[in-house]
Here is the input.
Amino acid sequence: MGFPLLIFTDLDGTLLDHQTYSFNGAAATLERLRQLSIPLILTSSKTRAEMRKLQEQLGLNEAFISENGGGIFLPPGHALQDAGIFEQLDGDRGKLFGRSYAYIRSIFATVRDAYNIKGFGDMSVEEIMQLTGLAGEDALLAAKREFTEPFVFLSGPRQEKLQEAVSGSGLTITRGGRFYHLMGAGQDKGRAVVETTRLFRVGSRNNILTVGLGDAQNDSAMLRVVDIPVLIPRPDGSYADVEAPGLRRAPFPGSRGWGIIVADILGELAGQKAKPY
Here is the structure.
């Protein structure tokens, strides 16, 4: 008997190339996933608005996880839309895990000067464009935060000290490929991946095998809860300090490495009669 397969993937530096945000290196493998009807669940620090656009570009109509596990969202008509945990949210149905952006910004304001940090809420669109390499429209979408505040240290990083300062307010800090992120404690990609897998499992009579791909510290919780964790190297070929049972390392950064290792996994599972959901 075969089993369904779910693939959870980070975006920047993983499925998307770090500098260009291109997924061309994974095009053949993405097409193979479409042919097999294997759900590809985008799991990113990006905002819901950004991920809606990427869903369209990738030809996906699938569940997605935004802002480091801040929420799980379903597009209209998704098979899971009748699950009782979802509420109607601006055209999507969603389940929220994160603290509100207004609350996060209020705490951010109390530590900003002492730790010499600057968040997206302090930046103009032009500054976000410069730091991210995004075009103007995409930078506007990146600024539509709901659950996290990306920020940079303007002087030497002091992540551990800042973590101590915000922990009493129920917040935590993680690090992505470009930015640090201030967000609610207990919110992470791993929790959202577990919940999403559980929802898919309700409608399946078979075991569900999960694959997770990421490149940074903020992916570690996701990689620890999937069956096949994959670490994508940074643009310079080095790997983030992330550990997970059975961790695999892709051979190349970005979409090229993503495409190769997912194709390899699909090939291995073909011998085990793996089936789409």
Summary: The mean pLDDT is 91. The chain has two domains: 5-97+188-270, 101-184. Residues 101-184 form a domain with the Threonyl-tRNA Synthetase; Chain A, domain 2 fold (CATH 3.30.980.20). Residues 190 and 225 are 6 Å apart (CA to CA).
